[in-house]
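Supplementary Data S3. Sequence and structure tokens for construct A.
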Amino acid sequence: MCELLEKRSSRPPSVLYSRSPSPASRPQSSRPASRATLVTSCSPIQIVNSEISCQEASSDIHTDLFPLKDQDVLLRRGNTLVVKLYTSVEFTGSYTVSLVFTPVYRSRERFAEFRAAGIAKTSCELWLSVTIPTNFPVGKYHAHITLSLRGYLEVLTHFHRGAIMVIFNPWNSEDDSYVGCGSAEVGHYVLDSQGVIWRGNHRQKTAMYWDYGQYEEGSLESALFLLSPLTADECRTVATVTRCLISKVCDSDGTGVMKASWTGRYGSGVHPACWNGSSTILQKFLHTRTPVKYAQCWVLAGVAVTLMRALGIAARPVTCYNIASCFGSTLARYFTSEGDFVHGITSDIVWVYRVCVEAHMRRDDLPPGYDGWQLLDTIGSPRVGRVVGPVAPKAVCEKATNKQQQLPYLTGIVHTAISADIKYLRVKAHDVASVRKAAVALVERGTVGASIATSSGHGAASLIDLTWNYKKQQGDPEPTMTYKMGSFPPPSRDCSFSVSTNDNALLGDTIQLVVSISNQGGMLRTIDGRVVGKVVQYNGTAVRNFFTMQFTGTVSPGQDASVSLPIEGKKYMRHLVPQAMLQFFVCVQARENSQMFIRLHDFSLTLPKLKVTCTPQKVALGQSARVRLEFKNPLASSLTRIVFLVCGSGLCKQKELSYKRLLLPAKLVTMEFPIRPYQLGDSRLLVCIQCDQLMGVRGECLISVTRDVQYNDNNMCS
């Protein structure tokens, strides 16, 4: 045994002895735990109190912003734990001290034990210094301290009143959450409490600010609670911890954080478009221990990132555009000879976008070369009905080559979701029986997985393109396919086609849809075209058709031609539903040689902005500031039951402001309210509008919180 030094100065002794054995190899005490408090010999000495703290300053290990209860201790793996024992009287002689960790949310059995022995001189205080191993299971623990004195049969026991919480350490190179020495990614993807989630479509990417709030009350506690199904050994690695968190974010058995829904009926809960942060969700879940209603993919991803960052894992939301959900390596779409798109024949769909999560980790369970960012899907796959990930981007790229090894967590499904081909089959109108005899008219490659993007951090709406991290770059040699993509080569063509729209159109504006045809051949081509406009959910589910138009024209050899189709706002506005977008099915065919062009063109309408201003721009910590909201009704109808939902980490707790009157068309509503920031630094105040007619309208403003500022009347931000 190592010598345990008594306290002789203000600094604690060096680390004496620490270990965290696996359950199979941990030492078993010769004295049963149930007899630890039995007194077998009278002793005047008792442990009257204990103090447990982290030797490193909380600001140095980036735990100072977490709200902790009295005597709770939060530290990262690899940090040093200092234990002070106070006895009722001074004593001398040899002794043995044991520090036992018992999980709070898992089995109550003794898990980890740290021991030290020494000889004390006259003292009423003992200090024990323990370094937490870098593979120690993350979790929340009770601390049980025992003190054995030579000459006494009695074992002195003490239960520390606070909890000890151990989380990952991305700044320690021996921890499997390590991101890299001096890497800016650590600060952005572990410490930032706000960020950007990308939505829209692959051409019109729109940024939505999200308040992760990992330092808010309830976030860390929820993350630790959700790890309760794991064993101690499973809590050692980032891969198993993130997989557990992802499986619990989207509820499937009544124990998850949120209930996902795309039905459009949210009367018993909150509309998914009205969430703008994670902390309120996690506080509700922790209070009720029941799933919070309702969520969709970006909400689930935002909550998952919060849980991972709270545990010290670098995490970020990743948006996959045109992601396939199908039961095979190819995806089928059906249309009629008249050029109408047919729904309901197949369950194969293409999401306009789907938000997943990337977490940074070392993969000791895989061959070398698969460390780094790993993809996890919060919703899962319909093919297997379970969680997908963590999956390394390198493994997804290699899935299309002979290099692919058998890797865990459904790597093949991720590859199919971003690389599947789309085959268009022609059926007879209103004849379901003709599906079996449907002929393949065209196969479209490269549309699925058109773009994969994430935010660059810094809290700014700057985009990082991750597409070629997951897909084979253009120009590379064609790999040997693992999955047969189908032998459906498109026919040779001497005409090319394209579809474009005015992508900056606001809600209610006229949409200009342009179909362009280029004839590179030596013969005149007669073109027949049909355009069908429909309202769709972003998950690919059709709502209803609102527009149909046919056109015919000729294109001379070597010439270009175009057809412009204006679509007025009144044609689509009355068909819109919250969170929906427009999709145009364009089918064009040349009469002379039956060349065909088919395209599904996604279009997102730009919503009006909610103007948010704060006076002053720089606010002293703990001082009040005034926030002003302004919004003009863009619709031709009145808005009813308007509620402004406000949140901002470090600025104010979530609040709801109701506007109890009707907001008539083209009328302006203004509201003011105070805030009192409680954390230093720059943070955004996020506001979104909830009403019966309009969802998804948001606004934000950046506010700087300093220790002391001088007020300036011109200090404004918007």
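Construct B, processed identically:
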Amino acid sequence: MVVGVAAYQRRREGGGAVLQRGRCLPEKEGRRRSGPAERSLPTRGRKGEERSSREHGRVKTRSTEEQQAAKKKEREKKLKLYRAGIDTVFAKCRKEEYDEEALEVTAQLLSANPDIYTLWNVRKKVLLRFKETKAAAELQEQQGAELRLTELCLRGNPKSYGAWHHRVWVLDNLGTPDWGAELALCSKYLKLDERNFHCWDYRRHVVEKASTCPAEELAFSTAKINSNFSNYSAWHYRSRLLPLVHPDTEGGRPIESHKHGQELKLVESAAFTDPDDTSAWFYQRWLLGRAGQPLAVVQARVTLRAACLCLSRCVRLDGPERLRAELWLDGMPVPGTWASSSGLCFSHVWVLQPAGEVLRCGDSPPREAEVRLCRGSDVVQVLTLAPDDAGLAAARPLQFGAQFGLAVTSVLEEQLASCTQLLELEPDSKWTLLTSVLLMQAIDRNRYHEDTMKNLYLLLKVDPLRSGYYRDLRSRYEMEYALDAAAASGKSELRVSGSGLTALYHSHYLSTLRHVDLSGNHLHRSLPQLHSLQCCQVLVLDNNGIKSLEGMPSLRSLQELSLKDNGISDVMELKLAKTRCPCINTFSISGNPVEKESSLLEFASVAQVLIKPS
């Protein structure tokens, strides 16, 4: 990548090559900019004379008043015919006359404007009726006619949604398609416009139907990227193909290690050729990500009256996939119903509502306790629980991001060094700053903790329009560091106070904690995400700009809620929290307008809670 930075520096200093539509061209082949004397300016002529000017490099001829009047008359004539055609089609639809005339009229209208979905749908109704009455040979002929019509429409508008969608429908519903010809058509259109994402989508459909070898399509994407690296669709298609051609057998990475290193070097050359082009940066983000996590029980806790488990993925229990969870104590299943903590069908966190007490008070702790995740009659995974001071608990080590081998890590370190060099030349390059953050997280997130936060702070200044995104990204990393610290301490508590959190990431990993401190942040919009805290007994939400507890979820284990230095002004908000969290016995509300309300003491007496005003 040092070579890439050196090449970029040469271009920046005015030598070497210039960029044109994502290609790196020699200087003599680049577009020569005209000087002030060479630019054509509008000429002020007499009335009725043609005048010309140069706009975006093209000569623009100004029409005379007579020409404009003639064009207006022609447009009105066409509009009248078009409206008559539309009226004819709608009249036939009302009478359900789906016949040859409907095909003829809609063909004429679509040739002029292929973006009216209703007309394509009328044709579909006609063709479906033909399928019931015509022979196979006639349907095959009709398929050819439909394909020719869509191709005619695409010549006028290569990005017509309706034309591309109709072509897919025709091939799937009429006659026997020639998928080889369709693949050739895609290649033809992508030569005309290599970034036509409609055609890329259509190509993926054709490739799937034709059972084309993924390796061949990977080579096609390589050729398109080499032709023009500023091609979002080609990079995206590549990310779909690589896991098929080079799968990661170990899991956790997008593709296997050796090919992963090659792809990083490929995208590195593209990204540093033009740091302002975003297509390669997005592809690099995919390379630095991780594959979907396998389904697993990550955490579990059992208390006196309930059991809670956290899964690595958001799933549905007792649904069509036949997934279910079971709690076993001393070799016996505990009866009860599993409910999602969010109240939705799919969730990370599930709570067992038992038929009776899970751990009967006074009995000795179970000698064996485990949570089983089953699919049908098969046990997918087992998590064994151990006693602690509040019942039974277990947790697997948390893993954030992909784990790379030494060879790939070496490539990533080279790229980080290149980013550092490029930032010396272009300190305000937001994509380079953001990529350096992602690289540091991928190499060693703990070693680069301070540098990560420093670059995110710089991004807030360099790119203020996306400050919300950068603050959320910082919130995610801060939560990950806090979860790592909580796991290392061995305590059932989390402290993320004063971290400037604007979003609550990884909230499902808080499901088994008993003390959570989120004070000094900006989480007034994140109250609904607290539904995962089903085992939390003490929750601190001081100084979070909270004015209402409307989004407060049901937390059956919560006993103490601290809301100091917020904007709560109505006792009804506390009543709402008490209703949803019935075990609350203490509110801390100093610094809120509500502490001056006369009805506060009455609420405390009726609800039997302790109010701590200071």
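The mean pLDDT is 82. The longest strand covers residues 307-315.
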